[in-house]
From TrEMBL:
<keyword id="KW-0597">Phosphoprotein</keyword>
<keyword id="KW-0325">Glycoprotein</keyword>
<keyword id="KW-0539">Nucleus</keyword>
<protein>
    <recommendedName>
        <fullName>Torsin-1A-interacting protein 1/2 AAA+ activator domain-containing protein</fullName>
    </recommendedName>
</protein>
<keyword id="KW-0812">Transmembrane</keyword>
<dbReference type="InterPro" id="IPR046753">
    <property type="entry name" value="TOIP1/2_C"/>
</dbReference>
<keyword id="KW-0472">Membrane</keyword>
<keyword id="KW-1133">Transmembrane helix</keyword>
<dbReference type="GO" id="GO:0005635">
    <property type="term" value="C:nuclear envelope"/>
</dbReference>
<comment type="similarity">
    <text>Belongs to the TOR1AIP family.</text>
</comment>
<dbReference type="Pfam" id="PF05609">
    <property type="entry name" value="LAP1_C"/>
</dbReference>
<dbReference type="GO" id="GO:0001671">
    <property type="term" value="F:ATPase activator activity"/>
</dbReference>
<dbReference type="InterPro" id="IPR038599">
    <property type="entry name" value="LAP1C-like_C_sf"/>
</dbReference>
<dbReference type="GO" id="GO:0061024">
    <property type="term" value="P:membrane organization"/>
</dbReference>
<dbReference type="InterPro" id="IPR008662">
    <property type="entry name" value="TOIP1/2"/>
</dbReference>
<feature type="domain" description="Torsin-1A-interacting protein 1/2 AAA+ activator">
    <location>
        <begin position="25"/>
        <end position="193"/>
    </location>
</feature>
<feature type="domain" description="Torsin-1A-interacting protein 1/2 AAA+ activator">
    <location>
        <begin position="244"/>
        <end position="412"/>
    </location>
</feature>
Length: 451
């Protein structure tokens, strides 16, 4: 058996990345928040995910992205933290200089003065340009100054449609446990309209609320562990994942007995480093390339690696087959793959297996520029495993480095030549120092293992 293993480290900055990156960063960040704020409902995360992704996916949104985060007393101390994290995800460029306006500082001021102050603040920040604005304590703005947001949140004529506006509201009482989610969210609107803004004119307030009616999310109580860091059982899960991977790799090594120490060392170090990190800087990416004598083994090895990296989905691995796409239009394949990946990540798959990378119609493979980025990848906790079937055996006279170069030359010169040499070279440059060569297998252990 002869195979190669390689790792993608990241893509160039190109137009495609600009399209997919913000949505991916948001989804990935939301998943991270969900792992910390574990007491929030599925509906809570679904509203944030769908509204946020729909807005970020659009090149010409019809309206701004607006979230109203409402917190009953038990969640008062957490709502600002969550709102700030959302704003940082939506405007990472200004992570350290977020646009934040504090309603509690305005509650004693004349409404007209507050309205002018807010308007000037918003325009100043948006002109920079900030992509997200955070309004703390919407309920403390002196009525009717809140009506300024009629224009900013309009669903047809808003002046800044690419903007995200996040409001926080501190509710005075806990919602009744007997209320449904919908009814609890309605109580937020009633509180604002009937108790807070009653002096501002009922019609105007109702009109304003209609613009956020489907984006109200009500927080549940949270725990101090999420403010200080992951709880101990999360840390344990990280070490368990690394242990499962190392043990599984040892088992593979006992079956594929003729491989070099270099091969297993790269798999072990790259995999363990990724799994040990609570905040990896990039995804874990393997590219397994097999010459003809290894064609029957490469899928087995890739599947076993994926099972080790995502044991929860061992029986339902996320697998995409390039051979089924080779006759399809590249744009169609690109969309199909992107939808497939997002669907799997949304249900928390940790590993994705792409069979026959070489059969994807060029340039659809460039989708992975964004997914495999070493700084801005949307899903940094992910493992992506590619397989490549090489057409010929490498010459025995080649050194390991030269044999590894032949994999890159095959993809760039023979497979992807029509996709643009510069883009392909940029993609391949991320695997240059991590390619390793497998030797052939002579025992029946691998056959018994894979049968």
């Amino acid at each position: 058996v002869v195979c190669f293993v390689a790792f993608f480290l990241g893509p160039p900055k190109n137009d495609m990345k600009a399209d997919f990156e913000p949505e991916g960063v948001f989804r990935n960040g939301l998943g991270n928040l969900q792992s910390k704020f574990t007491n929030q409902t599925d509906r809570f995360w679904k509203i944030l995910r769908i509204r946020g992704s729909t807005h970020l996916r659009s090149k010409d949104p019809s309206r701004p992205l607006v979230f109203l985060l409402a917190a009953p007393p038990a969640a008062h101390e957490w709502v600002d933290c969550l709102a700030i994290k959302l704003a940082e995800m939506l405007d990472s460029r200004h992570k350290n200089t977020l646009a934040r306006f504090h309603g509690e500082k305005e509650k004693a001021n004349p409404p007209d003065q507050t309205k002018i102050t807010m308007d000037n603040f918003l325009k100043e920040k948006i002109d920079v340009p900030h992509k997200a604005v955070l309004i703390h304590h919407l309920e403390l703005l002196p009525p009717p100054s809140q009506l300024l947001f009629h224009s900013y949140c309009d669903d047809q004529n808003a002046p800044y449609k690419h903007l995200a506006i996040i409001f926080t509201v501190h509710m005075p009482v806990e919602p009744s446990p007997s209320l449904s989610s919908k009814q609890a969210e309605e109580s937020v609107k009633k509180y604002l309209s009937h108790d807070v803004w009653a002096k501002g004119g009922r019609n105007a307030d109702t009109s304003l609320l209609s613009r956020v009616a489907d984006t109200v999310v009500l927080m549940n109580v949270c725990f101090v562990a999420f403010f200080l860091g992951p709880p101990k059982n999360d840390m344990k899960a990280d070490f368990e994942s690394e242990g499962v991977f190392r043990n599984g790799l040892g088992n593979l090594q006992s079956k594929f007995t003729n491989q070099t120490d270099r091969f297993w060392k790269i798999l072990r170090i790259r995999g363990s480093t990724h799994l040990r990190s609570k905040d990896p800087s990039r995804p874990l990416v393997f590219l397994l390339a097999a010459p003809p004598t290894a064609h029957e083994w490469v899928d087995c090895l890739a599947i076993k690696l994926a099972e080790m990296l995502d044991s929860r989905h061992k029986n339902t691995l996320a697998r995409f087959h390039g051979e089924k796409e080779k006759a399809n239009p590249p744009d169609q394949t690109k969309i199909t793959m992107d939808n497939f990946l997002k669907e799997k990540f949304d249900v928390s798959h940790k590993a994705v297996l792409i069979h026959h990378l070489e059969l994807l119609p060029p340039p659809s493979q460039l989708l992975f520029h964004s997914y495999c980025d070493d700084q801005n990848a949307p899903y940094k906790h992910l493992a992506i495993i590619f397989t490549v079937h090489m057409p010929v055996e490498p010459s025995p006279s080649l050194s390991s480095k030269q044999a590894e170069e032949s994999v890159k030359k095959y993809l760039s010169h023979d497979v992807w030549a029509k996709g643009g040499r510069k883009a392909d070279t940029s993609l391949l440059s991320r695997v240059a120092d991590t390619v390793v060569l497998m030797n052939g297998e002579t025992s029946g252990l691998a056959r018994d293992f894979c049968s």
